[in-house]
Design goal:
By secondary structure, this protein is of the alpha+beta class. The chain is built from 6 helices and 14 strands. A hairpin with a 2-residue loop joins strand 3 and strand 4.
């Protein structure tokens, strides 16, 4: 399969989240066409630009398929009813981490985007869902989601197609990269391969290079 449907396009604003902390993890569906720019959707915010947003992490996709799995793990939660409940910009069913690769390119509405890296989970997910241990479950399961960079700017709306136009590094699925770098389950040779993978974000290439021995 090379076509999927965008069920919702979600954006958010940075809001008080945990004391003085801000977060835009709660993304809400938008109506009509939304601009896809080099820094992400317009408008969309990220509270901590060190770890979210920017050209290398312009768009986030967290598979809708994982919401049902989370209900089994943590029980029901209102955020599991929201397509952007995990901070996802793009709500898509039937597409998971083992099906996509670093460097895969997709036509998103009129934009062209490229997978750049898995998402590394942080404490804000646990705070959002008021449930400890979710980060550990993501690392164990690989239900992490991923980021895209924008190759060609354009527009996207709910109902548009997400069409894979080109395969990237077919030996490096998002799932495999996540388990290798975030889970630390890779050999020195595999870390060396990742350090040389041009379509992987520089930050994760540097992390892989530090562990290649």
């Amino acid at each position: 399969m090379s076509h999927w449907t965008i069920e919702a396009v979600c954006t958010g604003t940075a809001r008080p989240f945990n004391g003085a902390e801000l977060s835009a993890i709660a993304k809400r569906p938008r109506e009509g066409a939304v601009q896809v720019l080099s820094e992400g959707l317009a408008p969309d915010e990220q509270a901590d630009r060190r770890v979210h947003g920017g050209p290398e992490m312009a768009l986030h996709l967290y598979p809708l398929d994982h919401h049902a799995w989370w209900r089994e793990v943590i029980g029901d939660h209102p955020a599991l009813e929201e397509p952007g409940g995990f901070g996802s910009n793009l709500a898509v069913s039937g597409l998971t981490e083992d099906m996509v690769h670093i460097g895969d390119r997709f036509r998103l509405g009129t934009a062209l985007i490229e997978i750049s890296q898995p998402r590394q989970p942080c404490w804000k997910i646990e705070h959002r869902f008021s449930h400890k241990g979710m980060v550990a479950r993501i690392i164990e399961s690989g239900c992490c989601g991923w980021y895209f960079r924008v190759i060609e700017e354009g527009e996207v709306a709910a109902g548009d197609s997400l069409e894979r136009m080109a395969l990237g590094a077919t030996e490096w699925s998002v799932a495999r990269v996540f388990h290798a770098i975030i889970g630390g389950k890779a050999t020195p040779a595999e870390f060396a391969e990742l350090a040389a993978l041009a379509t992987l974000t520089p930050r994760l290439r540097e992390k892989a290079a530090a562990r290649r021995g």
